[in-house]
Amino acid sequence: MSEVVVSTRIRLARNLSDFSFPVRMTAKEKLELCNKVSEVAKGILDFDRIDMQNLTKTQAVSLVEQHLISPEFISEPNGKTLLLSKDKTVSIMLNEEDHIRLQIIKSGLCLKEAYEIADEIDTKLSEKLNFAFSEKLGYLTQCPTNLGTGMRASVMLHLPALQKGRAVSRIASNLSKLGLTIRGIYGESSEPLGAMYQLSNQVSLGISERSAIDNLNNIASQLATQEIKARDRILSDIEIVDTVCRSLGILKTARLINHNEAMSLLSNVRLGVAQKILESLSLENIDKLICEIQPANILERYKDEELTVQQRDIRRADYLREKLN
Question: Does residue 190 register a pLDDT over 80?
Fold first, then answer.
C-alpha cells in the first residue's frame, strides 16, 4: 500500500476553557497559554520548544514544507509556539486557530496506529488541562466545522495514473457525498504538485473518531486499488515507461531545475520505483527527496550562500544529482 499511500496524519483541535479563543487573546495571554501547555507536555513528550517569532521566514516555511505545521501557523508568528518531538512524528501547535493542534504523522497507511498515539497524548494532556467541552457539541473549537471530535484525519496519496486519466475531479465530487475531501499537497486551495493529494475527513460532529477513521481507511484503500489498476493500464504504453526512465536520467544530469519540474520528474520516478521499473532506488528515499527539494528547504540547506532564485534551482539540481547518483 505504501506505493500509493505516502503518509498518514491525525490532528486533534483542543481549547482550554479558562482562555478566550486565540483570535481574542492578548499577547500576554498567548504567552501564558504557551508556557502552561509546554510545562504540562514536559511530562508526556521529549520535545523541542520552538517559539515561532524566533524563526526566520525561511525556517518557518521549511517546517510547512515538511508538513510539521500549517501554512496558517506562520502568517502571524507572535504568540505562537511549536512543540516538536525529537523524531518529528509528533507536533503540537499552540495558538494556531485553536489553543492546541496536536498532530501525528506516520509513514504509509496507519490511521489506527496514529490515532492511538494521538489519543494517548490527548488523554494525558486532558488530565492536567481543562479542555472546553460540551455534552451536546463535543470539543469546542473556534471554527464550527471542527466541533465534535475536533479531529481531522488525512492520508497523502500519490495518484499519477488517476491524475493522467483525469479521474481525480470525478472522484473528488463523489467523495464530498461521503464526508471526505481530496486536495493538493498542502491542503485547502493548494495544487496537487507531483500528483500528490491529501484525502481527509470533513465531518467531525455527530460521528465518533473510530467511525471517521474506519471510513477514511476504507476509501483510501479503495483509491489505492483504483490507482494500482490504472498504473497497470498506463504502463502497458512504452511511451509512458520511457517517460519514467527519462525522468530519472534528467534528475541525474540536470544542472538547473525548478521546483515544479523537480516535483513532476520525481513523481514519474516514484511511479517507476513503485512498479519495479526502476529497482535501484527506494520509495523511502524518493519521499525524503520530495520534501528536501522544496524551495525553503533548499534555502535552509544552503543558508550561508544567500541564493537567488536561479542559484536555488542550481543547488536543487546539485542536490538531486548527489542523492540519485
Answer: no
